[in-house]
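Forwarding the complex inputs:
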Amino acid sequence: MVATHLTLRRMLVVLLALATLWLCMALLSVCVGSTTYRPWQWWQAGADQQLAKDVILQLRLPRTLAALAVGGLLALAGTVQQVLLRNPKADPYVLGTAGAAGVGALLAMLLGAGAVIVSVSAGVGAFASILLVFLFAGYDRSAAQTRLLLTGVAVSSFCVALNALLLSLAPDGLLRGMVFWLLGDLSGADGAWPLAGLGVLLALIWPFARDLNLLGHGVQPAHALGLPIRRLRTGLYVLVAIATALAVTTAGMIGFVGLIVPHALRLMLGTDLRLLLPASALGGGIVLVLADMVGRMVLAPQQIPVGVITALVGVPVFLWLLRQRGMT
Amino acid sequence: MSAAIQLHGVVLQQGDRTLCRDLSLTLQPGERWLVLGENGCGKSTLLSVLAGWMPPSAGAVTLGGTDIARLPSGQRATQLAWLSQQDEHPFPMTVMEKSLTGRHPYIPRWSWESDTDRRIALDMLARLDIAHLAAHDLATLSGGERRRASLAAVMAQQTDWLLLDEPLSQLDIRHQQAGLQQLQQLAEAGKGMVVVSHDPNHAWAFASHVLMLFGDGRWQAGTVAAQLTADNLSQLYHCPVEALDRHGMPWFLPCR
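Prediction (whole assembly, two chains):
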């Protein structure tokens, strides 16, 4: 029989499978690289053992955790934004959240600030853009939410221009770092805290998954079913801003994960957000770890920024998925 | 148990046009009101005001004596269901999922839909003759089938009051009759209804009262027997309407 709706059992089975895949990818990412280790080598005594431990603990583990966290955060933020705007094309990049974070970060870099200030500045940028989009779009009662989406697009374009301006002003010494940051780069990123942040955000949003299900299918029916729409929306926007800021400060601008992962998962798993939210948090991590491994290895020892990989691979995959859907 | 809806001097405006002035009315539990009027006369606006979605330009609406805007939204949803004309589905959703949405106000935050919820949702689909489409995506259905799915969701909400905005539009003759029969059954079950329709003859299936909105501020309300006359309808629609005899009941048709 064809599934008519999501059952608790099906949700748990799917999540268990995704979590297993997530762990396997994490393990693979830690083992694979310029030198490939097998998991059991970590416990073997020998001269290599200390080196292996250092490489894994100091270099690969933080980076892997960062990929898992950033991918999950972006996919989670994208999923929620798509529902809030009732538009499957929305994500932190389309809406200018990430662009504004980029402006904040580049500005801090240009002024010669340290890593912490750059991160804080990016976070401020993300919040400012959400606030700006909200203020300009007002409380949009319309069905299509066009004003909100278009405001986001306008803010996004403006941020692209600002970023270009900042790049053109930058001295040569800073340029490479800034460009890498704009492209999205995981080298040197530490993901332990962002990963914890992802867990907290998911725990905060998931209880409202059923409300979000309704919100995605029109505000009037959602109102009739008793949702406090204004409060719900405001709270979710704040959480999305936090998720985006956290992702951007960890690894710079990585596009397409927030758009493609929720979309692909929706095609495969259905639209019930009780499953889709945790699945996005896991799926985003899986995809980004995979992209990062590719970026590390294809032209090794040269590293390709992970944002380039997600764009190059993500878009064709997205198109292919759309085509599959169209044929069934 | 069941509460009355009261309108106190409600004014409906659209831009600078006053559609309805000083509408004061008590809708008693179990009464079925048919709202008639030309396009753009404020019928849908009235329903959205009754649903607490939009505040009236002036006046107030109360449900059981409490201002509808102050009523906790979860409590409102178990007393009053609203089928709006909004029909947008940006994300895939199966017919069954749609029907299950009507159970939302009854499911605690940390619970899943129960077997009872599923049974009710499926039962409503069967009543509207779309149970065989339960696993289909709404986007793949015709407008009339989607309308029936939405109606099923509203019925699954099991409220004492149903606000229905053109529930039977887009339905073919057979399903329109089936829909009317459902409204009749809801009426017999003691539900209160406010139904917007373009066909005055729908009144015979379920309505006890009629509210006519003239779109220029005037309104007229009363029982079906007293208000539903060819004269009133001719004035309402600015078009001569005559009553033909159909099994002893007047049947309204435009004069030709």
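The CA atoms of residues 101 and 147 of chain B lie 14 Å apart.
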